[in-house]
Structure formats: structure tokens, C-alpha cells
Amino acid sequence: xxxxxxxxxxxxxxxxxxxxxxxxxxxxxxxxxxxxxxGHIPNKQNLGTSIVDIADPANPRLVATxxxxxPTSHSHKVRVAGDIMVVNHERNPTAAGRRAQDMPAIRxxxxxxxxxxxxxxxxxxKLNLSEADLVDIEKDEAQPYxxxxxxxxxxxxxxxxxxxxxxxTGGIGVHRFDMDERYAYISTExxxxxxxxxxxxxxxxxxxxxxxSRWWLPGQNIAAGETPTWSGKxxxxxxxxxxxxxxxASCWHGGFRVVDIxxxxxxxxxxxxxxxxxxxxxxxTVMPAPGLIGGKRxxxxxxxxxxxxNANEEQARRGRLHAGMATYDVTDLANVKPLALFEVSELDxxxxxxxxxxxxxxxxxxxxxxxLVHAVWFCGxxxxxxxxxxxxxxxxxxxIPDPVAGNKAPQSNDVALDSRGLIYVVDRLVxxxxxxxxxx
Length: 440
Hints:
Elements: E1 11-13, E2 15-24, E3 26-32, E4 35-40, E5 47-53, E6 61-67, E7 73-74, E8 78-81, E9 84-91, H1 99-114, H2 120-127, H3 131-142, E10 149-154, E11 162-168, E12 170-179, E13 183-189, E14 197-202, E15 210-215, E16 235-243, E17 246-252, E18 256-260, E19 268-273, E20 283-288, E21 298-303, H4 311-316, E22 325-329, E23 337-342, E24 360-364, E25 372-378, E26 381-386, E27 394-400, E28 412-417, E29 423-427, E30 430-437
Antiparallel strand pairs: 1-27, 2-30, 3-4, 4-5, 5-6, 7-9, 8-9, 9-10, 10-11, 12-13, 13-14, 14-15, 16-17, 17-18, 18-19, 20-21, 21-22, 22-23, 24-25, 25-26, 26-27, 28-29, 29-30
Helix pairs in contact: 1-3
């Protein structure tokens, strides 16, 4: 693995780089003890998960890799509890996207509108696809994806992870999720539902996870006769994080919910807030701050810059608000109050208008340190934000890495902290950085 030449990155304030690896693009980094566990974005090598020894932060060392035996799937998310590691199993994106599973409804809609079966030309026009794309969709229809779910590994020996069980779910499989010593809080598609829902599994016996309960947005359970009030899968669970007896659920274009799991077999929604519209980018993650700030309970959300990478789309988005971060007063869960927004300007990064690259927020470390939030921006690197005054978030440090391996811009994708306070950032394209904050 190569080391970068400029240790301070393209731009930095109060943050310095301690170590680096040119690891392939990643979707998540999880820290447990002296190891970093990294889930990789779909790639030609079918690389799923890397385990990196970070005992010496200046010299991170790759100790194990897991490759996938299914070229149609990826495992870009990973969680660890004790000697158990769980990774997601999700279908790779295709040119046809999710249209194969939507095709029956599309054909039915056209049939009702036309009073006859649609022609191929009419299908192509409706879908805005080529004939080759339609052929791919029909292949997917004939052979639906059946490998979605999550895999469980024994990592007592970090250099030799052992597969314990591959648990199947439904649809295109599992996306991001949370986990503790007893339960896994899985965001997955399931038969009979539109989009991802929350399924909680008891992991007492990792060889046989037992479903405990499900939670979904009203309208998702079409098998039970519910009808969505939104188009497609715009309202769905991205993932839910457990804090005490609450699950904080980010719901994409549906905003966020707080779910009471005092009775874990019967999840109950106790708070709901949606700020889309007017904000155009979907809710990626939501979490409460630890303790009270100024006598109030505070929560934060971060959106994902989620747009197609093509010249026409980029031109059309000029003037549109980029994904950012927000704070809320959630002292009364029945009356959530927005407080402030935090944005990174296009002037704050030399890569902000790189053709073909996203610029905007993506994720923050999902457990805050005091009043500090560690967040990553596509093309904007690491941003450290103090919310001691939640009505006026203040940036106290940042680190924008140089792009590596011939890429034009960094696409910082996920961030985690260890018990030493060191910061770990992975890039969606290439890169794994170990950083240190030297601020207040």
C-alpha cells in the first residue's frame, strides 16, 4: 500500500495526518480495539471487507481481507461486537437499477392507461432506457436476486475471519445497520414491503439469528394493504441507531423518526420530523447528542449528496442547496424544533466543482464526543463541528485529503473514532487515513 506525499493533505486546519493506506474504495469504517474494519464499495476484485491493525497509527497494517463468492453482491458496511463481525450483503447497482422489480407495476400502469399491453417502444419511452437496458431488466425479472442479507463472522483470530452464517432477508438485501452485543438492527428490503424497513434480530446464537420485530413507515407494508403516499422508494429506512431504549431512524426523503423499543418486540414511533421539502437531499443519519446542551436535549441529522454524476445533472443543480447537517431541539419528542444548519461552501474546497464528482455531506461519526461532531463531505474531507451552541454550529477543524491513485477529487465517505480520540476516514474511491485533531 502506498503512502501519500503531502502529509497535510490539500487543505487542513487543526488536523494532521498520522498514517495512510491506499485501500480500495470503502463504504464504512468501524473501530474495535486496535483494529479497523472496512467494508468496500462494489469493485472488480469482489473485495468485501478489510481488517487493518491500527495499534501503531503511523503504520496501519492490513492483516486480512474477505472476498465475495458472488459477483452480483457487495459488502460495503461492517459492524463488530466482541469476536463477532457482521457485514451486509446487497445487490450491486446495475444500469437498470431497481426497475426489474418495479416492472410489473410499470406494465400494469401502462396497460390501464392504454387499454392494452404496452409495446417495447412504449416501455422504453416510459423508462427512458435503451433496448440493451430493457434486455438486462428482463434478465433480472427472469432471475431475481436472492442473496440479499447479512453475513456473520468469527473474528477471534483477526488474521483468519471464519464465516459462521449467511442470513437471507429479501429484495436487494441489507444496507447500513447497527449492532450491539445482543441484537442486530438491520435495514433491509423484505418481501411484501416497499423499500428498506427495520428488522431486529437476536444474535444470542450467531449461527441462528432470530427475528424479534419489524418497524416500517406507514405505507410500506403493501402486502397488508397499505398504500404509499410517495413515489417509488423515496420514503424508506436508511438505517436506525440504538441509543438506550430508542432507535433513531433516518428515512431518506421521509426525514427521521424516533422509535421506542422499551418493548423490543413491539417498536413504537414516538417522534416524526420531515424537512423534505424544501431540502432536496435525503436524510442519511440522525442521532441524539449525549446528555443535555444548554438544558435541552439536542439531535443532529446529516443528509447525503445524492445526485447522478453527469454533465446535464450538474448544470441543472447549480444554485440548489447541497447536502448538509442540521441541529434540532428534541426535548419534547412530540414537538421537534429545527435549530440550525451547517453547510460547507463550494469555496471551502478546491475540489467542489470537479466534473463527475459529488460535493456535499454524507456521514458523521455515529457517537459524538462531548459537543464535537466529526463529519465527512464528498470533495470536502473531514469537518469537525462544535455544537456547544446548537443554534450556531461552529467548525473547529478540517482535513481535505489529496486525491490518490489518479482520481480527480477525494470522496470522503465515512468516519470513525477510537478510544484514543484518533480519527479514521475512508474514501469512496481510494484511501484510508488516520488523523489527529489538535484543536481545543
